[in-house]
Amino acid sequence: xxxxxxVFSSLTTANKIKSELEKRYSIKSKxxxxxxxxxxxxxxxxxxxxxxxxxxxWNMVKSLDVYTKGVFGEKDFKxxx
Amino acid sequence: xxxxxxxATTWPKPDRVYRGIYEFMKKYGAxxxxxxxxxxxKSSRVIYECRELIADMFGISDCxxxxxxxxxxxxxxxxxxxxxxxxxxVITTSMEHNSVLxxxxxxxxxxxxxxxxxxxxxxxxxxDDIKNKINPYTKLIIVNHVxxxxxxxxxIQQIGDIAHKNGVLFAVDCAQSGGVVDISRxxxxxxxxxxxxxxxxxGTGILCINCKYKLGCLTEGGxxxxxxxLEQPDELPDKYESGTLNAPGIAGLCEGIxxxxxxxIDQIRHHEAxxxxxxxxxxxxxxxxxxxxxxxxxxxxxxxxxxKSGYDCVTLSQMLNDKFKIASRAGYHCAYTAHxxxxxxxxxxxxxxxxxxxxxxxxxxALMAVNLL
Lengths: 81, 373
Description:
The complex is a heterodimer of chains A (81) and B (373).
Chain A: E1 3-8, H1 11-25, E2 30-33, E3 45-50, H2 54-64, E4 70-73
Antiparallel strand pairs in A: 1-3, 1-4, 2-3
Chain B: E1 2-3, H1 15-28, H2 38-58, E2 66-69, H3 72-83, E3 89-93, H4 98-108, E4 113-117, H5 127-131, E5 138-144, H6 156-165, E6 169-173, E7 189-193, E8 205-209, H7 247-263, H8 265-284, E9 289-292, E10 303-308, H9 313-324, E11 326-327, E12 329-331, H10 336-342, E13 349-353, H11 360-372
Parallel strand pairs in B: 1-11, 3-4, 3-5, 5-6, 6-7
Antiparallel strand pairs in B: 2-8, 7-8, 9-10, 10-13, 12-13
């Protein structure tokens, strides 16, 4: 299974996205620290979701108007969005 | 022991609060927001759940605007010192706690001007008196929602409307009202105690930000985010939550809020109103008693301030403890101007404050004790 990481500066924001994904779409996700291979410099948190859930999750992030550093591949750390 | 000091902190707490704290500390007491391992994440989920519960209870659309503080005083200090600059004017009332008046006094030495609007003998502030004090430099109106001295409930809806019509920020000290009476949703900022009407443990306070105004912060430091930046992050709640949170306390608060939700604010108020009415009626039949404040259960909460002739309030409170094991609080309750307003400025008063765990039988025993003394 392939996963993507949606990166946020704030842990609270990451937790909010996790909660909303579950509430709105029953999508399971996990909050983890952002790997240092992802080029975001600072300490941050990300929500790990299945790649197949990425577009739903991303649309929700945009609709909530929260600050995000983008979506990255879990394995290659490349920026997807 | 009969406990009537619920305005200081509610006691006992619901069993689920004790269990919540214990389980948090025993099972997943890691530092929330500092690491990615499962236990730290579980800990952070408890904090997040509590934020969501508070946002839901007090009508805050984004739970990131729910800030945990160590108490109401800290939340009020963030509001006051985060807004006011030299040259600004602020309006407050004579019913305030020192948690508002002392920060304002300090700022007044640095060019902030403030007006104190007097309440009437029952503690009620006329919103028009506030309106009449607004001038072009007025930046903030800050009022106490429920008096910790005598339970007076201010009309914060009307005061908030006046503030907003005049382009002035509006903040409310909800230390005594959170979980006790419905809080008007038109305040820009409100400060809450986690350990009073929300039945959490001491060491928990809340700042709710209900507008887009960017408050300055009092404390800078580690937030677990933006670590390569020397400047404090602007993102909420991180901006105001530097350092490790009181996570076990917040876990307990989370359970306290669930307790209030299960019982319902209206139901809790109804119970406390019944006790208060019974107590005030009983006091009315005892010779030498003076009750201060509204004496109107529809316009006050479960707080009663009184004196008995021939006794100073501290002695009376101590005798209630020593002879009858009744816990009350005497003195000025950190709100001298409120006492002066309601007529107890010369010596203070004994305060009984009721909670959801008090019973009519306890109140009856207290009345008998006051009568016997």
